[in-house]
Write a structure and sequence with these properties.
alpha/beta; Rossmann fold; GMP Synthetase, Chain A, domain 3; nine-stranded mixed β-sheet; 21 strands; ANL_N_sf; ligase
Length: about 425
């Protein structure tokens, strides 16, 4: 599959439209959900002749995908090879299925991502994310590295001792890891006199948590990691529904969109495309997916996009970091913000290591935000002052037993920490 990232923007758009139109025809013909929806709304594929006509097509919500899950399957069941589920950050996990072509597409996407970063066949990569538990990303990384021909060490998630033993034994060049887990690895190394600063690791491909701010600088979490461990950090962004990963190049100026694998829109509340640099909701149409193709799927993720060419010479659009989920927007004492704004303040404050943020409604229907910190934390007044100076509002701060905080953060069966709890 040819990579069109270095073509001029008009050529990129022309190729993308051809692929979008082919995908639209496939969806209209093969997807039970969309076939019925198009009939109900009298939608004709022949009326959609350019990207300017996209408003004639409906937006697909997470609720529809959850409610009519099996109706999105567009291939015979016997063709399905892999079953996965979403992480369920905003509700119950959604099932997803992939056939052989979908797995090849995943491999191609991650192959390009690793090449974009600069990983070579001669390199070794340690994957510290799970390849089981119905998790798409771990398998995608494995398939992409296999296509690249790089060496793979599959340690899976957790177990810092195993991670360091594997690094010592196999000398990998790169890690695939959740940023907060890198901090746990550093803490384990410090506690066990491991000379981690002189290990073979030179960079980490970071998943699952924002790593940069809206100006593409490392956020508090990223700064905390690099202050302790001088390795290069690469930001990525992906989800099961998108079946696509967006990865930043060594210029670290946004996550590149693989335009022949996915079509992206960043829309305002009225459903119009925002201007470059403005915040909107990411809406995606994965291209080339076969088992569960989605059309104009609303991710709920709020971010910015940039159209100008990158310093790496690629001409594809780039996405800024996710600043929050649309459903998680908080209105606190007249100030609109997202959980990530609170997380940034907490990660930058050196005295807070463990916390959970909880949003609820008071008896008048107004947003209330509580931050739970360990009982050993005794700088609540200072932390309130920091919140006031950074985001102009002060959430409630309460102490809890550390075990209770960890239980809230990692509920049974969860694949990743649930730092923000939305009870509204």
């Amino acid at each position: 599959m040819k990579n069109y990232s270095f073509e001029n923007i008009n050529k990129i758009r022309e190729i993308q439209w051809q692929l979008f139109r082919t995908q639209l025809e496939y969806i209209a013909e093969r997807s039970p959900f969309y076939k019925k929806l198009f009939e109900q709304k009298s939608i004709k594929v022949s009326d959609v002749n350019s990207f300017h006509d996209l408003k004639k097509l409906p937006i697909t919500s997470k609720e529809e995908l959850q409610r009519f899950n099996s109706e999105f399957i567009a291939v015979p069941e016997e063709d399905i090879i892999d079953y996965v589920t979403t992480s369920g950050t905003l509700g119950s996990p959604v099932s997803f299925a992939l056939n052989d072509a979908d797995l090849d597409r995943l491999a191609e996407n991650e192959y390009r991502s690793f090449k974009l970063i600069g990983i070579k066949k001669s390199d070794k990569v340690q994957i510290t994310t799970t390849l089981d538990r119905r998790f798409m990303a771990g398998v995608a990384y494995f398939l992409g590295l296999r296509k690249l021909g790089a060496g793979i060490i599959r340690t899976g998630s957790g177990l810092p001792q195993l991670q360091w033993e594997s690094i010592s034994r196999f000398k990998p060049d790169y890690l695939v890891a959740v940023p907060s887990f890198l901090l746990k690895m550093i803490q384990y190394a410090l506690e066990n006199q491991i000379d981690y600063r002189n290990s073979s690791i030179k960079a980490a491909i970071c998943i699952g948590e924002p790593l940069r701010d809206e100006n593409f600088n490392l956020n508090a979490l990223g700064q905390k990691i690099t202050k302790l461990w001088d390795i290069e950090l690469f930001s990525t962004y992906a989800s099961t529904e998108m079946s696509t990963a967006f990865t930043e190049c060594p210029e670290h100026a946004g996550n590149h969109v693989p335009t022949d694998l996915i079509y992206t829109e960043v829309l305002n509340e009225s459903g119009d495309q925002v201007k470059t640099g403005e915040i909107g909701e990411l809406v995606v149409t994965p291209l080339g997916t076969r088992t569960m193709p989605l059309l104009r799927f609303a991710t709920g993720d709020m971010l910015t996009y940039f159209n100008e060419s990158c310093l790496c010479q690629r001409n594809t659009p780039r996405l800024g970091p996710v600043i929050g989920r649309k459903q998680q927007k908080i209105k606190l004492k007249g100030t609109s913000l997202y959980p990530q704004h609170l997380i940034e303040v907490l990660n930058a404050y050196s005295g807070v290591e463990n916390y959970v943020i909880e949003a609820s409604l008071d008896n008048l229907g107004r947003d209330v935000v509580k931050i739970f910190v360990p009982e050993t934390f005794n700088e609540i007044d200072e932390l309130k002052d920091v919140f006031r100076s950074r985001i102009n509002v002060t959430p409630q701060i309460e102490t809890k037993d550390l075990r209770e905080i960890n239980r809230m953060k990692l509920p049974r069966g969860s694949r990743k920490p649930q730092i923000f709890q939305d009870l509204r």
